[in-house]
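User: I'll paste a sequence; please echo it back and then give the predicted structure.

Assistant: Echoing your sequence first, then the prediction.
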Amino acid sequence: MIQLSAVIISYNEEDYIGRCLESVKDIADEIIVVDSFSSDSTEEICKKFNVRFIKHAFEGYVEQKNLAMGLASNNWILSLDADEALSDELRRSVPEVKEDPQYDGYSFNRRNNYCGKWLRYSGWYPDRHLRLFRSDKGKWSGLNPHDKFRLDKGCSVKRIKGDILHWNFQSYDEHIRKMERFSTISASSYLQAGRKSGFLAAELHSAWSFFRSFILRAGFLDGYSGYKVCSIGAYGCFLKYSKLRRLIKEQKSKN
């Protein structure tokens, strides 16, 4: 049987992290929480569990997760966000993998709870993620804040039964605030990556975002919650490209 490290990054997650830790405490041989100096009771909650709690200034989602993974004592990693937890079915599937792993990584679906409703469409389910893997076979990458673990070329992956349960937002206002914050991070990441944002780019990307999620991905079947999550997502897309356009103009004016 392999030894497994559960790795979690956190910042002011007192509403969620207890549920996250409870779901992995009997599965993981080690739990590591890398916290970005929370000002709430996150640390006190973690102390109730057998957790290695480390404080580290936030440098970006990709950077923070790679750092946290590097602190693990075991080669096999189960990566979760603090506002996530394993479903009962996934809690049965992961120990089966521990007994005899046949692949380099394992993916599972993520079920998102949006303002009290579990979404089934809108591009938010099955929302598959690779979260159980060998740390020596890949690394976290992507453009912040959209981190993704990428296995090395030639590695094998299998999807296993069960869902990650993810509590996204408790209110629409919280979603809007996060879109405003994430759009700033994304715009900066896009600028560094050389992305462009021309005339009407924000409007066109926003319109496509809503059409894709609400129509093509059947967000209308999630009812009013589907409409809200798709429309706020489109708003975030608009902000991202608007901010990118402004950053490009500022950069050009300095040259």
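The chain has a mean pLDDT of 95. The radius of gyration is 19 Å.
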